[in-house]
Design a protein that fits this description.
- The complex is a heterodimer.
- Chain A is of the alpha+beta class.
- Helix content of chain A is 48%, strand content 12%.
- Chain A has eleven helices and two strands, in the order αααααααβααβαα.
- A two-stranded antiparallel ribbon of chain A has the order 1-2.
- In chain A, α2 packs parallel to α7.
- By secondary structure, chain B is of the alpha+beta class.
- Chains A and B meet through α3, β1, α9 and α10 of A and β2 and β3 of B.
Amino acid sequence: MTLDPKWTATIDAALSDSAWDDYDEVIKKEVTDYNKRFATTIDWKILKAQLWTESGGPKSGAWTTRPMQIGNTGDKAWGVMKAHKEHSNLICSAALTKEIDDGKSSINDPKFNVRVGIAYVLTRVADYGTKITDPKEKEYVVKAGDSIEAIAARIGTTQQNLFDLNPHAKKVIHPGDKLKYQSAAIDVTSIPVLTPEILQKRYNGNGDSTYAEKIKYCQDVIAKIKR
Amino acid sequence: MRLLLMLLLACTWVAPVRAGDFDAAQEALYAAMKRQKAIDPELRLVTLRYVCSLEYAKRRWPVVDSVEQVRGAVVPRAFNRILVLDQKLKLRKIVPYADQAPRFCKGNQLFVQGELGIDNAAPYGNVLSFSDNGDVSVSKIDVNDLPIPLTGERKTYFLK
């Protein structure tokens, strides 16, 4: 697929304009923190390339408001982050969580937007799994109207733990059935190495079929910058 | 004899399906989703299509693929969801997905292109199985072992 020449010309401008580096320090600091917390080796430059792709660069109105495009009208991402859904509570640092919760920072503050944006990117790309918090087996008696999903949320375990210990529950459960379970929660199992393809699939949801290609183009331009 | 022949013909007669029927069904689906706010008016709806119907708890459950995008974004980001409806088109279950896509149903199983996990957590797999209570469990099947859509036959004839 060929990228629009107008778009590539816009990105090429970064070679001679240091404004494209405005958020380097914010990205580096965030990535250093995530790499420490999750023992990963995220390359901050791929997130810089993604920021360029998302914002369109310093000449775009988004650059000084919502460079990561979180908080646009109708965007679910900001709602997800504020409600700590989709396991974003496991990704956000305590400091960022506090800032999101106290409501003092505006999502239109570009640096805050970048930080929330990175947290949302990692929320979308991370792998999650069940972590047993107490291996002791307990028992739950099914009530009328119960579902595995509702039971798991109520008794502090995961659907997978209930399915693992009660394989028959994959077919049907009846009131009076006794289900074994362990206390468990969803946890981050790993954050994969970020690639343009992973970002297109897991973050962009294939909303833009050239998303990975755009990030690669930005990465190439970033590699050529000498300042 | 003539009566028997007429009975046989009546049994095998299938009402013709017209293109307009699909349009009407699509409009009914759109109206039902809009009414239930399953479509976000602030997003741009790019796909809303009936995929297939699951069969569990002695009922049929239509499966719909829904893709919405953020309006006015520099690059469009998609929010993709599998919607499971009841026979009155009431939304019963939502399974968000990233780049996977629902392909076809066989009984209580929905086969997906790519792998996803319930609540976006492991195990990840390409088969979603629905229990009679409406719960979803995930398993994996090798692509070569996928049943054939519509007939459900296994591809074992390749080995014969």
